[in-house]
Amino acid sequence: MKAYKINATLLFLAMILSVVSCRKKDDPVVTPVETTGEIGFEFFNYAGDSSLVMTTGKYRTGSGDTVSITKFNYYISNVKIKKADGSYFVEDNSYHLVQSDLPSSKHFHIEDVPAGTYTSVTFTIGVDSARNVSGAQTGALDPANGMFWTWNTGYIMAKLEGTSPQSTASGKIFQYHIGGFSGANSALHTVTINFPTNMVLTTGKEGSIIMKADALKWFTPNNISIASKSQIMTVGSDSKAMSDNYANMFSITSISVD
Predict the structure, then answer these.
(1) What is the Cα gyration radius of the chain?
(2) SS3 state at 245
(3) pLDDT tens, residue order, the chain (258 aa)
(4) How many CB atoms lie within 10 A of CB 86?
(5) Please, which residues have CB within 8 angstroms of residue 165's CB and are 6 or more apart in sequence?
(6) Are 222 and 244 in contact (CB under 8 A)?
(7) Rounded to an integer, what distance in angstroms lies between the CA atom of residue 207 and that of residue 119?
(8) Which own/partner contact pairs does 85-92 have at CB distance under 8 Å and 24+ positions apart?
(9) C-alpha span between 19 and 39 (Å, rounded)
(10) Rounded to whole angstroms, how far apart are CA atoms 213 and 197?
(11) What kind and span of H or E run contains 22?
(12) For the whole model, what pTM was predicted?
C-alpha cells in the first residue's frame, strides 16, 4: 500500500513537470538596434575666395563696386538628402534661418537619418508659399527675427546689407531685402548640390556637410550696380534678378563622417 502511494506521488509530480515543460516559453526580450545617424550642416560666409569679415572687410563686386557687408541672412528650408538608390530622406518641419550676427544659427543638425550612402542635398533658399500665408509662427519663422514683411508680401527670403562708396543712399549704405513667393517675380529657388564624394552614414555616426555661401554672387551674372540700385526692398523685377544671382551662391567645400 505504501509503495502504491509513493508511485502515485511520483506520477503526480511527473505530470506537473510535463505540464510546466510544455508551456510556451516567453518570447525573448529584443533590444531595438539603432539604424540611424545624423547629419550636421555648417555654413561659412565668403566674399569670393575670401572668408567674409563683417563690417571692416572690403570686397569688389563683379560690377566693380567696393562693398563692406554688415548683415548677411538667408533661409534654408525643405532640406532633403538623396540616397545612392535614388530615394530621399526629407527633414520634417524644415526651416532654418542663418544669420551673420548669430554664430549658433550657422550650424544645425538633422537627426534620425537612416544609415546608407548619400550623394547630394536639395533645399530651398527662402520660405515656401504655404508658410508665407500660415499666420503667426515661431522659431526660425518668428517675425521677431526681422525677416518678415506682411501677410501679403510674406517673408524676406534673404537679406544683404552694408556700405559702399558707390552708393547714393544716405550714409553710403546698400540694403537688399529679397522677398516674393508667387508669380513671375517669386524669389524662391530650390537648389541641388552634389556631394564631392559619397557620404556613407553608418549607425550612430554623424555626417558633416561644410557649406560655403558667397555674398558676391548677389551681384552677378545679372549685374547689379550699387550706384543705380542701392536699395531693393520690394518685390519686383529687380528682386527677382538678384534672387536669380544668389541662387548660385552655395557650394559644398567638404563632407565627412565621424
Answers:
(1) 29
(2) helix
(3) 444 444 555 455 555 445 445 455 555 655 555 599 999 999 999 999 999 999 999 999 999 999 999 999 999 999 999 999 999 999 999 999 999 999 999 999 999 999 999 999 999 999 999 999 887 799 999 999 999 998 778 999 999 999 999 999 999 999 999 999 999 999 999 999 999 999 999 999 999 999 999 999 999 999 999 999 999 999 999 999 999 999 999 999 999 999
(4) 7
(5) 65, 66, 172
(6) yes
(7) 12
(8) 85/116, 88/122, 89/113, 89/114, 89/118
(9) 54
(10) 20
(11) helix 2-22
(12) 0.85
Q: What does the alpha-carbon distance between residue 178 and residue 189 come to, in Å, rounded to a whole number? A: 12
Residue ranges per structural domain of the chain: 38-257
What is the rounded distance in angstroms from the CA atom of residue 146 to the CA atom of residue 223? Answer: 27
Sign, Cα dihedral of 228, 229, 234, 239: positive
The angle at the Cα of 253, spanning 252 to 254, to the nearest 5 degrees, equals 95
If you ran DSSP here, which 8-state letter would residue 130 be given? H
**What is the rounded CA–CA span in Å between residue 195 and residue 46?**
19
- Residue type at 146? G
Helix or strand (DSSP H, E) at 246:
helix 237-246
Half-sphere exposure of 213 (CA within 13 A, CB side): 23
* CA dihedral (114, 119, 124, 129) positive or negative: negative
In the chain, the amino acid numbered 246 is Y
Record the cell numbers describing residue 245, joined without a space.
Answer: 544671382
